[in-house]
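Our consortium's second objective concerns turning raw sequence data into structural hypotheses that experimental partners can test. To show how far this objective has progressed, the report includes one record in full. It was chosen at random from the queue rather than selected for favorable results. The single chain below, 424 residues long, was entered without modification.
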Amino acid sequence: MWAKLPPRFLAVALVGLVTCLLWVRYSVPYLGSFEGTIAKPPPASKSVKNQQVLQELRIPKDFLATFKATEKLRQGADPAAIYDPKDPEAYQFSPGLLAVSKLLPRNAYQAWFWFSTMNLLLFAIALMWATSYSTHRSVFLLLVGLLMGWKGIIETLDNGQPELFIFGLGLCAAALLGRLTFISGFIAGLMPWIKGPWILMSLPFFTAATRRTERRGQQFFSGYLAGSFAFGAAIPSIVLGSERARDLSRGWVDLIKYQSANLFNSSLNQSVWASAPRWLTEYPVLSLGLASLFLGMLLGILMVQASDHGYFRKTSPIAWVSPWFLFIQLMSPLGWRWGSVFMIGAPLAAESRTTHAAHEQGHSSMSWAWWGKRRWYLVFALSVLFLLQQNPLTEFLGFGHWTELHGSGIVTAYWLIGLVLCTL
């Protein structure tokens, strides 16, 4: 029965179902028009039902830090109080994002509802825009990708992080690169002001645009500068005032410098730079050297692919950009475990890369047999690492919770194998 339905319809239904489930789970419970704020909830006499809901609901901690920082900003607090290096729960994003956060409602519950809703909406739109889903195989690979990234999706929402928004921006920028290059550059220019390491995303975009025509490269570069200036300087200065925006930017930089060392050693950090010394505890310097060599090789392969205009023209945006999502997550000094959300496009990227290689070697189409034994070994290893992130298996193995394996860097290995499959 499913085989008779159009693939595009199945893809829309799948993405719509997943998005609705996440929206009902993470956004809808916060929709009520609660009075008051986190600091001063409404009195019980106003609404017993609302009071009970308030006690049960929990604002994700990282979004709560954003909400509190926005309230401090409205009250005219000193930048040092917003970016306090000694506060482990201090606001950690750029002043540009802080300025935009002023658009959210002043009620924390409603603010989270709109923030999570916008994230999920962009996520769904970008995922549908990312490829044509012209075959049932592509829909199946999308389903596999959603399963692979599911842990990252729910942890992103549980913690109130913007990875879904970054994922959506990256896909939109990739989809527009070949048609509206300036707009693509503008969107890509916003990403580093959400999280700094995403400045690396400019490498494949600029390379691909330049390889098409020099004019395209200039358009992307102009758009990138415009987006960076708008979100990094113009918007904060207009909304907050130039002096206040400057002081907040200095506070943000100081906070990053002060807290990076402590955050780097956190077991939540699954960056390759954090996990490599965990794998070779007796040889930390050697481990970092090997990690640098391996990432350098992958970067070289990815840059060659980015400069291949034929591959860019034939492949879908999600397949083209997904390896870079994973590479930047690994390369970042702080690669949090919920970065598994970027595994969503890995199956589509692996199929696209293999199909392209098959065509280059004279094969008319990609078959599962064409993958060869080495690729299937990697798929098996990836499956094992996926299962080790599921509580039923880890409890069967004697662990209390799968997060006890953080120190072993299993999420890092999960990303690495996914990236290798995307680049073969």
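The partners drew two points from this record. The chain has two domains: 1-129+162-264, 267-424. Residues 1-129+162-264 form one domain. Both points have been shared with the crystallography group to help prioritize constructs.
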